[in-house]
UniProtKB/TrEMBL annotation:
Subcellular location: Membrane
Naturally occurring in which organism (per UniProt): Paenibacillus chartarius
Protein name as it appears in the record: Endospore germination permease
Family recorded in the similarity comment: Belongs to the amino acid-polyamine-organocation (APC) superfamily. Spore germination protein (SGP) (TC 2.A.3.9) family.
Database matches in Pfam families: Spore_permease
Membrane spanning residue stretches: 7-26, 38-59, 80-108, 114-132, 139-162, 182-202, 214-238, 269-287, 299-316, 328-349
Membrane topology note: Multi-pass membrane protein
Length: 358
């Protein structure tokens, strides 16, 4: 399997791909929904998610190295498998679109206000389409190059902003009861549920990810959420943090080294572009790969073309945030939960039936 990648490589891909959602896009939604209790919401999800991780690894164990479409047709038949594949394709498309639209708006509103959004979108999408055409191995190589610098910059901004932080601002917790925690937990869980991508990529791996591998990724991704959450609250206070559109970026803007070195937010551009570049390329690749078609170019072009059109649609940032809160995160939460129970139940029934025949 010369074109397959290792579990370590897929972990680096997912840390960049899912990490940009957890570290950037999710934060303002969580702060708005749960306030200070957003940290508690992530902690509660982190405590419960090993149950879901166990279901995911159980499915992957019995799916083995079969392509996802072949496995679906074997267990659910051609008709139902097409419906499931269509739902998965919409889910993957939304993953790519949300991050793509968010970074185009952010780039246009912060450091490239005079560049047309269409030009930004076309250039970014062309680069991602080129990488996706190269296959999963190309995405893994690029991720391996980008990730170490992204991680180092993350520790850098956290360490040198420590003097601005007052962790007493994180308290009191649960001042309004558990209602904010429940609201925030749905958003936090739906973001971490993106590790379901392992199921779609399993046949491209040299060996199956273990329960420990999945659990480690969950903890790392949860840390990518808790870090900027606590940083935003401890630096700006909850009232100001809730009003910010990009709390993670604002933490870069207050960073300074001594008296004479500041405006280091240029490094945030590298971090965010790296994450979205890998995330969008991976989304395009998976949308074509799950259908297991011999000619994947039409799938790639269709997915990229619809994303380009959607990214330049006259959607305000307020409506986009509302879409995240009311459509995207609830939809992904329900879809992944539903598919997990459906796949785990069908796998268990199939194995139970096989045992009954022996």
């Amino acid at each position: 399997m010369p074109n397959n990648i290792s579990v370590f490589q897929v972990c680096s891909i997912l840390l960049l791909s899912v990490g940009i959602l957890n570290h950037v896009i999710l934060i303002p939604v969580l702060l708005d929904a749960a306030g200070r209790d957003a940290v508690v919401a992530v902690g509660m999800v982190l405590a419960l998610l090993p149950v879901w991780a166990a279901c995911l690894t159980y499915i992957m164990k019995h799916k083995d190295q079969q392509p996802f479409r072949d496995w679906l047709q074997r267990h659910f038949g051609k008709g139902l498998s097409v419906i499931i594949l269509a739902a998965v394709s919409v889910y993957i498309w939304l993953q790519g679109f949300v991050s793509f639209f968010d970074i185009i708006v952010w780039a246009h509103s912060t450091y490239m206000p005079h560049t047309p959004r269409f030009a930004l979108a076309l250039l970014a999408l062309a680069c991602c389409l080129f990488l996706a055409t190269g296959g999963l191995r190309s995405i893994a190589i690029v991720s391996g190059i980008l990730l170490p610098f992204v991680v180092l910059l993350g520790f850098f901004v956290a360490a040198f902003n420590f003097k601005h932080k007052d962790y007493s601002l994180v308290l009191p917790l649960l001042a309004d009861g558990f209602a904010p925690v429940w609201r925030g937990s749905l958003f936090a869980a739906s973001a971490l549920f993106e590790l379901v991508l392992l199921l779609f990529l399993q046949h491209r791996l040299t060996h199956r990810p273990s329960f420990a591998d999945v659990l480690l990724m969950i903890f790392l991704l949860a840390g990518l959420t808790i870090g900027p959450l606590m940083g935003a609250i401890s630096i700006f206070g909850i009232e100001e943090a809730v009003l910010q559109r990009y709390p993670a970026f604002e933490q870069w803007r207050v960073l300074e080294l001594g008296k004479y070195i500041e405006h280091l937010d240029v490094f945030a551009i590298y971090q965010w572009i790296s994450g979205v570049f890998v995330r969008l390329s991976l989304s395009l690749f998976i949308m074509a790969d799950v259908w297991n078609a011999k000619n994947r170019r039409p799938f790639l072009l269709l997915a990229a073309g619809t994303m380009l059109l959607a990214s330049i649609a006259p959607i305000s940032d307020v409506r986009f945030l509302q879409f995240l809160k009311t459509v995207y995160f609830p939809f992904t939460f329900l879809l992944v939960i539903g598919l997990t129970f459906l796949f785990a139940g069908k796998t268990w029934i199939s194995r139970w039936g096989m045992k009954g025949q022996t």
